[in-house]
Specification:
The chain is of the alpha+beta class and 839 residues long. It has 15 helices and 37 strands. The strands form nine sheets. The chain has an eight-stranded parallel beta barrel with strand order 18-19-22-25-26-27-28-29. A six-stranded antiparallel beta sheet has the order 30-31-32-37-34-35. Strand 13 and strand 14 form a beta hairpin.
Length: 839
């Protein structure tokens, strides 16, 4: 869970200037915000001349001046807060009557009805391609081009150049003589467009191209089953009919019109209206000459006549915040993790070790400011500490850094704060080549209300439910997804697949699942709408999670999904074909809460809370669990893990070490948040990062912190080497209590079994008293010497402990104890956990 992402955030608005063409300098996009309606502009007199190009804009009043007095800069200025252009302004004016280039003949006009022109240039036409481009008509081929602010447009064909005639509002038309509607071959032509003060620009005409989405794409999208949605929607550099450019496509079914704006047209969409692809709700446009690095947004005209500037929901790259534009991107990364991917596909995660290091990329090492710089340091650190996996807090683009990434605005874009999508691929690739699995946090539970993003995307509820009681998330001031709408489900399911296929992610930790599953989550009575059966369960959300899990597991062999789910919802990790939600693992929030309550008590009081440390075994096999000590437990006044412990500094560290030893031995995988591996004393601060300086020699207690880190290193090493601690994690056959009831002495002992029956015994002494000669039951070792040795002792001096140990192998005696046929007398160090294995 995350702090509130303040709504209504704005970024600096830069006035746009006149556009020369696709090669014009890049500009910062205007802030996305809703427009105030205004009366239509007054039409210009027929003989009105344009204002000088680049003339200064006097202020907001310039937008409402009569069209004949508007400057080109004012007309090109863009903001989601501006009123919609009515399309009656004659932007080319008398300049279009200038003489044609030498040798160019003026073609006869191929005019459109004024009403069609008004819809076209006003951004309200559903099919501009039916008017623009080349179209066979009686007497030849009509060519129509929309180039606001142009002085003249010349068509270059095999027969030579010919000038088009300006009709109105930047629409240039001409009739090429020819065979007309009977012509079998389309006319091949280019455009030579002249703007004031610059050299003419030679361009291809994007309005002569067919749609870049096929019928199968549209069918799958309408059915909500396009599992590679990012390949159809968003922006894609491609070649169409031999012409290089970028195809854009966006879902906005309620829009009255959509235009493309960006740094290539100075954020003025009047020359780039998009076409609607029928009932699919998709709007599409191919723009020749655009490529990687282009910044863009969609200018959406709502049915109420307002203008919204929106980032692309399927943009695969984004501008560095506080910028909010989408960015066209391509990938040149060549993966080098074939061996890892093949091994992953063969791995049965429930019978394999998993020790996870959770971190926040931006603050793990604040001096490392890019994915590539992190890739130089992180894999080595994880290998040194023997972690098998790393879990990254959300890497998707988000506007507010203080949300830690949990309020996502760009679901398909790795945050640009740390580099490009290929830079992130490089990080994942490097981790894989070091043998480290990569899990990312994924947030399909809610999204922020920022004006440029998903909220009321086309002027009406689209990604969120129309019912405000279901749309509003009361905890975080955000909006929930409409899981019952097939297109929204498709957006999210495909997004889960996207991260696994495009970035080779090995696992998705799904955030805030409980808030998705219950309609009354954090809502008082009367503030929520029941489901069709009168219940509190969000049946659409449950169905979505089943679909997401089934799709990911089918498409991405070896990937695991993990649920952060804090309730007793039945079957979170049960397969979907058995009625479950289908997750691979579930965070054991009950174990986390109860065990921290216990360990936070003074030892003298722990006897009264003994059930808190043992109760988890009552339900340990109801789901497939991972034991989390996550970022949520070390922020917002909860204190760092070591600071939760009672006693003086020595006792705090001893409790910390004993607790980790218990955690690693308990059934379930384990996760530890950064900074807790070396017992930093302060809570996590996303601006400061972990307290690495406590490991420096100049720090008085640096050896204490280094000792805890050495323990974590050895815990992971012993864990990876001991199948008893992970092979039977999800079955009761892998665990047996030896003594779970020694509350008066603050003692626990249990045995873990590997698939071949090899045991490992864990004994926890949560008392500050040394226990000499404490008898502990031990399993019989068939056909072997009955010798046991310490494989790990959290009180060892190298970890900062007192060094009390069973220094020699201990031989068990044929004395029945704790339900076992044999037993031995052990020395139990204070506030420590022992692991014993057969010699």
């Amino acid at each position: 869970m995350t702090p509130l992402d303040p709504p209504g955030r704005t970024t600096r608005t830069v006035p746009a200037t006149f556009l020369a063409g696709p090669d014009s300098p890049q500009r910062e996009p205007a802030t996305a915000r809703r427009a105030e309606p205004r009366p239509p502009a007054v039409p210009a007199p027929a003989n009105a001349a344009p204002a000088p190009v680049g003339a200064p804009v006097a202020g907001p009043e310039a937008r409402d001046a009569p069209a004949g007095t508007r400057t080109a800069a004012a007309a090109a200025g863009v903001s989601a807060g501006r009123p919609a252009d009515t399309g009656t302004t004659d932007r080319a004016g008398a300049a279009a009557e200038a003489a044609a280039p030498s040798g160019a003949l003026r073609l006869p006009e191929a005019p459109l009805p004024p009403a069609e022109v008004d819809r076209l240039v006003g951004g309200q036409h559903h099919d501009p391609h039916s008017l623009l481009g080349a179209h066979p008509v009686h007497g030849g081929t009509a060519i129509r081009v929309l180039r606001p602010f142009a002085e003249r447009v010349v068509v270059e064909t095999a027969l030579g150049p010919a000038e088009l005639t300006h009709q109105q509002s930047g629409l240039f038309t001409g009739l090429l003589p020819g065979a007309g509607p009977a012509a079998s071959d389309p006319v091949d032509y280019r455009l030579l467009v002249s703007y004031p003060g610059i050299e003419p620009i030679r361009q291809h005409d994007g309005y002569r191209t067919p749609p870049t989405l096929g019928d199968l794409d549209l069918h799958l999208i309408s059915e909500g089953r396009h599992e590679q949605l990012w390949q159809a929607l968003g922006s894609h550099v491609r070649t169409v009919d031999g012409v290089a450019g970028t195809a854009f496509a966006v879902w906005a079914p309620n829009a009255a019109g959509v235009r493309l704006i960006g740094d290539f047209n100075h954020w003025d969409g009047s020359g780039h209206p998009m076409r609607s692809l029928g009932s699919s709700g998709i709007w599409e446009l191919f723009v020749p000459g655009l490529g990687e690095g282009t910044q863009y947004k969609y200018e959406i005209r709502t049915r109420q006549g307002w203008i919204l500037d929106k980032a692309d929901p399927l943009a695969r790259a984004a501008q560095i915040p506080p910028g909010t534009a989408s960015v066209v991107t391509t990938s040149a990364h060549r993966w080098q993790d074939d061996e890892w991917m093949a091994g992953r596909a063969r791995t049965a995660h429930h019978r394999a070790p998993m020790s996870v290091y959770e971190l926040h990329l931006a603050s793990w090492r604040p001096d490392l400011t890019s994915y590539r710089a992190i890739a130089e340091e992180l894999p080595g650190y994880l290998k040194e500490l023997n972690f098998s996996h790393v879990e990254l807090m959300p890497v998707m683009e988000h506007p507010f850094g203080g949300s830690w990434g949990y309020q996502v605005s760009g679901y398909y874009a790795p945050t640009a704060r740390l580099g490009t999508p290929d830079d992130f691929r490089h990080l994942v690739d490097t981790l894989h080549r070091h043998g480290i699995g990569v899990i990312v946090d994924w947030v399909p539970a809610h999204f922020p209300k920022d004006d440029f993003a998903l909220a009321r995307f086309d002027g009406e509820p689209l990604y969120e439910p129309a019912d405000p009681l279901r749309a509003e998330h009361p905890d975080w001031g955000t909006l929930e997804f409409d899981y019952g709408r097939v297109e929204v489900r498709n957006f999210l399911v495909a997004n889960a697949v996207y991260w696994c296929e495009e970035f080779h992610i090995d696992g998705l930790r799904v955030d805030a699942v409980a808030s998705m599953l219950y309609l009354d989550y954090s809502r008082e009575g009367g503030a929520w709408t029941p489901n069709q059966y009168g219940g509190r369960e969000n049946l659409d959300a449950a169905s979505f999670l089943q679909e997401m899990n089934a799709t990911v597991y089918r498409r991405c062999p070896g990937v695991i999904t993990i649920a952060e789910e804090s309730t007793a919802w039945d079957g979170v990790t049960r397969p979907t074909d058995s009625g479950g939600l289908g997750f691979g693992l579930k965070w054991n929030m009950g174990w986390m809460h109860d065990s921290l309550v216990y360990i936070g008590k003074e030892p003298v009081h722990r006897r009264y809370h003994h059930n808190e440390i043992t109760f988890s075994m009552v339900y340990a096999y109801s789901e497939n669990y991972i034991l989390p000590i996550s970022h949520d437990e070390v922020v917002h006044g909860k204190q760092a893990l070591v600071s939760k412990m009672p006693g003086d500094w020595w006792q705090q560290r001893a409790n910390h070490r004993a607790y980790l030893g218990f955690m690693w031995a308990h059934p379930g995988k384990q996760l530890l948040f950064m900074g807790q591996e070396f017992a930093q004393g302060a809570e996590w601060d996303h601006e400061q990062g972990p307290q690495w300086w406590v490991l420096d020699e100049q720090w008085p207690a640096h050896q204490d912190h280094l000792g805890v880190r050495r323990l974590v290193r050895d815990l992971n090493r012993r864990y990876l080497d001991a199948p008893a601690l992970w092979e039977l994690d999800t079955t009761p056959a892998g665990f047996r209590w030896l003594d779970g009831g020694a509350a008066e002495d603050n003692l626990l002992s249990f045995v873990r079994y590997a698939a071949d029956g090899t045991p490992l015994v864990a004994v926890c002494n949560f008392s500050p008293v040394v226990r000499h000669g404490r008898r502990v039951g031990l399993p019989a070792l068939d056909g072997r010497d009955q010798l046991w040795e310490e494989v790990l002792n959290t009180d060892a001096e190298t970890y900062g402990g007192s060094g009390i140990a069973n220094s020699r192998p201990v031989k068990s005696e044929p004395v029945e104890w704790n339900g076992q046929p044999r037993s031995a007398e052990l020395v139990l160090p204070p506030l420590a956990t022992l692991w014993l294995r057969p010699v």
